[in-house]
Design a protein that fits this description.
This is DctP family TRAP transporter solute receptor. With 336 residues, the protein is an alpha/beta fold. The protein has 14 helices and nine strands. Strands 1, 2, 3, 4, 5, 6, 7, 8 and 9 form a nine-stranded mixed β-sheet that branches.
Amino acid sequence: MKKVLYTVAALLASSCMVLGMANNARAEKPLTLRLGHPMAPGNNVTVGYEKFKELVEKKSNKKIRIQLFPNCQLGSDRVTTEAAQAGTLDMSSSSTPNLASFSKSYMAIDLPYVTSPANQEKLYKALDDGELGKALDKVSESIGLKTIMFSEFGYRNFVSAKKPLKEVKDLMNLKVRTTDSPVEVAVATELGMNPAPVAWGETYTAIQQGTVDAEGNTFSLLNDAKHTEVLKYAMDSEHNYSMHILLMNKKKWDSLTPEQQQIITEAAKEATVWQRAESVKLEKKAWDAFKAKGIEITMLTPEQRKELYDRTAPVREQFAKEIPAELLQLIADTQK
C-alpha cells in the first residue's frame, strides 16, 4: 500500500513539474506585434520604425518583438489603419493626409503654410511633451487607436514630369496626384491644378504613363521610391507639412502590462529623436540625387512664396470651420 502511495505521489509531483514547465514556457513566449506601413526601403519613416523595432527588442530582451511589413506589403495607409482599428493588425503607420478620412482633426497639421521649417523644433516639443501631442492622441483614441509615435515625414514640394515649374502660375492645369485628403484636393484646386486622388503604390506608374503630370511630396520619399526616374522638374514650395503617425489598436494597448507599455513608450521616444535627425540627412541626400538626375529645381523667392500663401488662404479658411479651434490654436502657438 505504501509503495502504491509513493508511486502516486511521485506521479503527482512529476505532473506538477511538467505543468509548471509548460506554464513557464507560455509565460516566456515573446509578444509579437505586427506593424504595417506603406513607405519604401530606406525612407526616413521606414528607418525610424526599424530603429523602433531594434530598441523595443533590446529593452525587452526580445520578450517583445516587432514584425515589420513596409512598402505596402499589407496594403496602403488606409488599409492598414482600418486593419488596426479592427484588431486584425496590431500597429499601422499612416500619413496625416490619409488619416483625414478617419477624423477631420488630422487635417489640422496639413493645412497649407500653418507651419514653417523655421519653427520645427517648437512643433516637435509640442508634439512630444505638450498639449498638441495629447490632443492628437485623444483624436486617435476616438477612432479606437493609440498614438505611439509621431514620425517625421517632412514638407511637401510640387514636382512635375511634364513642364518646368518656374513660377506659381506654371502649376495651372497640371493634373496632380493627391491623396484622398480634402485639404490636398482643395490646395490643388485653388492653385488651378486638376487633382486626381491616386493610391501611393500606384503613383509611380501613373506619372510614368502620363495618367497624372505632377505630385506633391517630400524629396526624400520621391527619391526613395525612385520617382526621380520619371520626374523632370520641381519647386521648393514647402506648401504643407506632414507626419506619419504610428498607431496601435487601443484594445491591444490596454491589454499590455504596464512594463510592456513603458518599454514601447521609451523606445518610441528614443526612435523619434533618432529618426528626425536621420531625416535631415536623408532629405539632403535626396536633394543631391535630384540634382544628379538632372531634375530642374526652382527655388522660390519670398514674393513667390507669399503668392502661394495668399492663393491658399481660402483653404485655411474653409477647413478652419471643420477642425476644432483648440487644435488649430495649439499649432499656431508653435509658430510664435
